[in-house]
Recover the amino acids of this structure.
């Protein structure tokens, strides 16, 4: 396997220029590139035609192969396929550690959600930094949210957990109902049943002033909860270098394992298995608000699919609930399901997909 080299878009590279209905490519000296091998390599990168200011690495073994600016003005990056495979292995290898750390993190979240400063304190005085960040993590755990970006919200009017505004959430029949434009402007509606989070969000909705939903009281000031604050809380109380995104990867993996366990078939032809896998991925994608392709490539641990293809699922651990779908809102049921998923991942050989 070839060894990749670190590359940087700050270094001289190949530039793309429009020519007629297509493109031409110029080397750092400004000379037009006509070498068919180089042109073939560039074509294989599948750089979107809409990208502007395209930079392409001279080195075919550079870990970063190309960058560009998309139609929304965001800088985008294309990495070497071997680098992506390496990062995927790291990401999915960390899922075991993340799953094992959840019990510790959830205990801390439960403790902080019950925090109140002084006996008799009410409303805003109960909205300490720890309590609001604990609420954010509880919502990440239950709601499949992206963490959000202030810049993305400002540029695109699309929101994640830390940028959701008070008008994006309502309380209906004891449920928190989030209704907001998510990534790519896609409408997202998410209902969450959690009494402790509901109490915190209810108080946050009543506070004065502008700004996002999640904020904590600091004396007379309100300070917004930023993504780095939430990630620091997760890292501190999980004992690992985890972030908000790990919740989406973990939840996607658990949901896929449940969907596949509930779809076991007596006939396991390749066609039937592929159909079942595609249906499971579509189910998970609907929860996450992603396309099935992105969901499978970036969120579902490929070992779950590999084990299904080897006729191994978590159906036995789920028992009768496998056919009708377990109630993952029940903490005891969820703990049993997650324990089965951890065991499934731990016993799985290295994934063909993650290994590239």
């Amino acid at each position: 396997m070839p060894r990749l080299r670190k590359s940087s878009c700050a270094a001289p590279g190949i530039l793309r220029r429009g020519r007629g209905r297509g493109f031409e490519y110029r080397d750092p000296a400004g000379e037009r590139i006509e070498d068919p091998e180089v042109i073939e390599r560039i074509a294989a990168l599948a750089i979107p035609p809409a990208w502007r200011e395209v930079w392409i690495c001279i080195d075919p073994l550079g870990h970063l192969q190309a960058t560009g600016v998309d139609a929304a003005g965001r800088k985008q990056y294309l990495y070497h396929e071997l680098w992506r495979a390496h990062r995927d292995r790291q990401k999915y290898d960390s899922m075991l550690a993340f799953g094992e750390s959840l019990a510790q993190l959830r205990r801390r979240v439960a403790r902080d959600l019950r925090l109140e400063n002084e006996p008799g304190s009410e409303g805003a005085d109960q909205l300490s930094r720890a309590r609001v960040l604990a609420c954010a993590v509880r919502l990440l755990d239950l709601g499949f949210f992206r963490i959000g970006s202030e810049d993305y919200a400002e540029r695109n009017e699309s929101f994640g957990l830390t940028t959701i505004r008070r008008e994006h959430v309502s309380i209906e029949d004891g449920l928190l109902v989030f209704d907001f434009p998510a990534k790519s402007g896609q409408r997202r509606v998410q209902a969450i049943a959690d009494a402790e989070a509901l109490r915190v969000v209810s108080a946050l909705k009543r506070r004065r002033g502008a700004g996002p939903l999640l904020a904590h009281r600091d004396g007379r000031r309100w300070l917004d909860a930023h993504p780095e604050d939430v990630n620091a809380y997760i890292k501190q109380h999980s004992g690992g270098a985890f972030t908000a995104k790990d919740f989406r990867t973990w939840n996607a993996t658990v949901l896929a394992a449940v969907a596949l366990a509930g779809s076991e078939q007596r006939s396991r032809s390749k066609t039937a298995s592929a159909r079942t896998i595609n249906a499971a991925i579509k189910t998970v994608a609907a929860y996450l608000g992603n396309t099935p392709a992105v969901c499978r490539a970036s969120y579902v641990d490929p070992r779950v699919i590999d084990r299904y293809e080897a006729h191994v699922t978590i159906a036995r651990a789920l028992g009768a609930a496998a056919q009708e779908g377990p109630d993952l809102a029940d903490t005891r049921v969820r703990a049993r399901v997650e324990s089965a998923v951890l065991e499934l991942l731990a016993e799985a050989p290295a994934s063909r997909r993650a290994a590239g």
